[in-house]
Give the backbone structure.
Amino acid sequence: MVLENIILEHEKGITTIFINRPEKLNALNRATILELHETLEMVDKNSEVRVIIITGSGDKAFVAGADISEFAHFSENEGAKLAAKGQQLLFDFIENMKTPVIAAINGFALGGGLELAMACHFRIASDNAKMGLPETSLGVIPGYGGTQRLPQLVGKGRAMEMIMTAGMIDAETAKIYGLVNHVVPQSDLFLTYMTLATRIMKNSPVAISKAIEAVNANFVSGVDGFDLEIKAFGECFATEDFKEGTSAFLEKRKAEFKGK
């Protein structure tokens, strides 16, 4: 696969995806969304990849929004199709991936950029990061899941304020809100996400994928998350990872999970 808008790095089971459109502050266009989808789909199928990091190239932006020039003249129908396809290809896709995905927010995460970060399983940020959903200042609303995921993470009132004012919040405020888990100096961002990824890799990939499914079920209309948890819990007992994990515990040794 020829990559034009992203850079891939692999290191000991960790794949880092850098969105690389520096001239546009890494803004998402349709080509980048498709490229991210195809790359993530490929990486998610690779059993050797245990954690995925998504970040932006450079030190100014994670993703500074969507590429407005692509849709400024869209019709109502075209706009709806743009949102539907984007959600399917990238944002919903990431949320439901079996491999854990961490967003490393290294600068501006605005509009589609914040929506991308929110689709990841959790977020860390550098202390220079700024986050917001400025769409209402353009006469539109967030269309890549922002109106749904932001209230889930920060609560309805704070989400309403952020969307209605179209303003930005800094990294420390985002941490207070629960939008990001950690805030670190920009120079420490790489070490922080690699440390977290390494800790995740010590655990069962099968159990982690089922945990992702169970947690996500709580936010799906018409799905009983408790029932799904019970089912997923039972399924874990049929895995090699469960046998290895329990054996290692009883034998007082370190488990060596195979993801099976």
